[in-house]
Amino acid sequence: MPMKLSPKTVRIIIALAVMALAGLVVLQGLLLLTALESKEQTFRRNVLAALNGAAQGLETSEAMHYSVCAALSDDDSLAQQRWTSEFSPPDSLCRDSVIFVAATADTVPPVRITGDSLYYVVHRPQRVLIQVYNPDHSEKRITIDTFKTAGQYSISLDSLPPSPGGYAYSYRLDGRSVVQQIETFGNRPGPLAGFMGNDGKTVLVQRVLSLLMDAERRPIEKRLDRTALDSAVTANLKYHGIELEHAIGIVTGNLDSLALAEPADAADELRMSEFRTRLFPQDVFSIPSNLVIHFPGQTFYLWRQMTPLLAATVILMGIIIVCFVMTVRIMTSQRRFAGRLVDFINNMTHEFKTPLSTVALASEAISRPDVTAEPEKIARFNRMIADENQRMRHQVDKILQMAVLEEGDYELALEEVDLHDIIRRAVDSFTLAVESRGGRIACDLKADRPVVTADRIHAANIIHNLLDNANKYSPDPPDIAVSTRDADGGVMVVIKDHGIGIGEADREQVFDKYYRVPNGDVHEVKGFGLGLYYVKTMAEAHGGYVKVSSELNKGSTFVIYIPI
């Protein structure tokens, strides 16, 4: 495999990776929508189950209510049946929670009548209320109404006069109302429900059916208690795991006429709701009515149920996308870096090839007999060899220095240095080279506090590199200006030239290692692309920074900040 991928190959790889990532995102989105649809179906099933449960509970409660009221009714038809004794409890008993105690072998009634005495047991300290009355209520008295501690008690029945219909006892124990009947003609007394004959049961059923048919003819909004309706719906929703704010209503007939809406402002939503179930489905004569429900926050509720899955998906997809973007950027950066490295090797080869060729020619000349006879020529060739050797040493030192900087394995010898003194020395060393090209270097050093804590050698190299670039990249004649000014907590050094400038596309990369602004032949201006990288690295090592402003063919301005 080649070390360097072609641009076309890189673009194909990136395109395939982008398509794969896009496909993964779309697939994950479809999975989320499928999961949301599943949540919606589960929610719909639970709501309908809750509505059915509420409707069944309301129908059952109504039937039980009318059964109790029919059993305790003073209807004449019941009085004509074969009861062991007949009685008519007060209306208050129909409103109470009444328990009829059957005289079965495995049932022990809370009150026992033996002979002429009534026995009852109090399981805990409480108020005990016992009343006795005959069917027409002509005889009615409170036998006991007092507070009793736990224990067994009895009362005498001798004081009751004979009554054709017998008597009934109403008593309350443990929060329950219990009715028990007793005859006064010598028959053995017993619980009321235990002595009702088959004919009485038939009449009771008929009475219950009559009450239910009467209820069917009532308007649905009067037939149901709103509080009971809301409680039944809320309880069934909670049983099915739904605790969500809702609106309920009753829709009657086929025209979706709204008989009840709670709250009233949700009427339109209730008419359009898909959640509905039949109320009192066993009714024969009533107009069909549906219990409907609407959830204003249904969408948010379903998405909230998806929060764990959605959060995990977003986090994982975010990580994948970030890693993908970083991989592409690193790949692109490494590819650019590889190209710069090739240019660096070419430039370095060129920089070393010239002095090596000069040394080879000088050495060959010294060995010629006509040169050895002239000491002056030997001395000149020796100076050439020494200069080129020094030049190669300087280039090698620069490369080694950059290697040390890249590893971060360097220490700054910090001391108080005068930046004005360093700048003057650097300007003096470049004045001859600039003036030889007909140019000039102007200094305007106005900083009142030029003394900073810095490494003297590195500070001098920073100024030297920037002046060297200003000279190399300026056409004849060079025009360079160096100035200083005080800055907040440090000194600002500005080096401005009127050279070829830097294009906008290259300004962000000029401080990268090995980067050189493309300008035709890379060997036109000698260098390795390490100078500005060194300047940036050393400025930041001193706690400062360097920035550049430039326009193509209008020169460049470099600003270096060094803190005090």
Structural write-up:
The protein is α+β, with helices and mostly antiparallel strands. 48% of the residues lie in helices and 22% in strands. It has helices at residues 7-71, 76-79, 92-95, 198-216, 220-223, 226-239, 267-272, 298-305, 307-366, 369-372, 375-407, 419-435, 456-472, 504-507, 531-541, and strands at residues 98-100, 111-114, 117-122, 126-133, 140-148, 151-156, 167-173, 176-182, 190-191, 247-252, 257-262, 275-279, 289-294, 414-418, 440-445, 451-455, 479-487, 490-497, 545-550, 556-563. The strands form five sheets. Strands 1, 4, 5, 7, 8 and 9 form a six-stranded mixed sheet that branches.
Question: Short description, anyone?
Answer:
With 564 residues, the protein is an alpha+beta fold.
- Rg (CA only): 53 Å
User: What would CATH call the class of the largest domain?
Assistant: Alpha Beta
Tally the structural domains: 4
Query: Pairing-aware structural class of the strands and helices?
Result: alpha+beta
CATH topology of the largest domain: Heat Shock Protein 90
Average pLDDT confidence is 74
Known CATH architecture of the largest domain: 2-Layer Sandwich
Number of helices: 15
- DSSP E strands, number: 20
Largest sheet: 6 strands, mixed
Based on Cα principal axes, name the global outline. rod-shaped
Termini Cα gap: 53 Å
